[in-house]
C-alpha cells in the first residue's frame, strides 16, 4: 500500500462533502498538473490518502481510500488528464495543521512543505504514521 495527500479547498470540495458520498466515493477530478497526474496514475485501489483542506484551514482533516484507479478525467476536454475515485475512510480526531507539520522536525522533507502547490502528493510510510499519531489515530 502507498500513501498520498490530496488537497481541496473546503469552499470547493470539503471533507463533509466527501463523507456524504459514502463508500462509493467520488471522482477526484480537475487536477491539471503533470506531476499530480503522474501521482494519480501511480495510485492503486486500496491506497490511502490524507484529505487536506488547502488555503482555507490548511490542515489534514481525514483519510480517504482510493476506490477506483485512474481513468480519463471527464472534465478535461483535452483528454490529457486523469482522475481517481476516492471514498472517505475516517476523520482525524484532531486536524493536523500546516503549522504543526512545519514544527515537527521529522516532517521537514514532507512534500507538503517542499512542493506546497502540488495538489496530489506522495507521503512516506514514516510521515503517514507520524501525521496519524499527531491527528490522534
User: Structural class of the helix and strand makeup?
Assistant: alpha+beta
- Please mark out the parts with pLDDT under 50 across 5 or more consecutive residues, or reply none: none
Q: How would you state the average pLDDT, rounded?
A: 95
Main beta-sheet strand count, sense and barrel state:
6 strands, mixed
* First-residue to last-residue Cα separation: 18 Å
What fraction of residues sit in β-strands?
35-45%
Number of strands: 6
Percentage of residues in helical conformation: 25-40%
Order of helices and strands: EHEHEEEHHEH
Q: What is the helix tally?
A: 5
Strand arrangement across the biggest beta sheet: 2-5-4-3-1-6
The coarse overall form would be globular
Radius of gyration: 14 Å
Give me the secondary-structure topology.
Elements: E1 3-8, H1 15-20, E2 26-28, H2 34-42, E3 48-53, E4 59-72, E5 82-97, H3 98-103, H4 111-114, E6 120-123, H5 125-134
Task: Describe what you observe in this structure.
26% of the residues lie in helices and 36% in strands. By secondary structure, the protein is an alpha+beta fold. Strands 2-5-4-3-1-6 form a 6-stranded mixed β-sheet. The chain is globular. The protein starts with a strand and ends with a helix.
Please sum up the structure shown:
By secondary structure, the protein is an alpha+beta fold. It has five helices and six strands.
Descriptors for this entry?
alpha+beta, globular, 5 helices, 6-stranded mixed β-sheet, 137 residues
Amino acid at each position: 500500500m502507498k500513501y498520498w495527500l490530496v488537497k481541496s479547498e473546503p469552499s470547493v470540495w470539503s471533507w463533509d462533502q466527501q463523507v456524504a458520498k459514502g463508500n462509493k466515493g467520488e471522482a477526484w477530478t480537475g487536477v491539471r498538473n503533470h506531476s499530480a497526474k503522474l501521482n494519480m496514475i501511480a495510485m492503486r485501489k486500496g491506497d490511502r490518502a490524507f484529505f487536506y483542506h488547502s488555503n482555507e484551514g490548511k490542515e489534514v482533516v481525514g483519510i480517504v481510500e482510493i476506490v477506483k484507479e485512474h481513468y480519463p478525467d471527464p472534465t478535461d476536454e483535452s483528454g490529457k488528464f486523469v482522475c481517481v475515485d476516492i471514498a472517505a475512510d475516517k476523520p482525524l480526531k484532531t486536524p493536523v495543521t500546516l503549522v504543526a507539520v512545519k514544527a515537527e522536525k521529522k516532517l521537514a522533507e514532507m512534500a507538503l512543505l517542499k512542493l506546497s502547490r502540488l495538489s496530489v502528493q506522495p507521503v512516506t510510510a514514516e510521515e503517514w504514521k507520524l501525521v496519524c499519531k499527531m491527528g490522534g489515530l
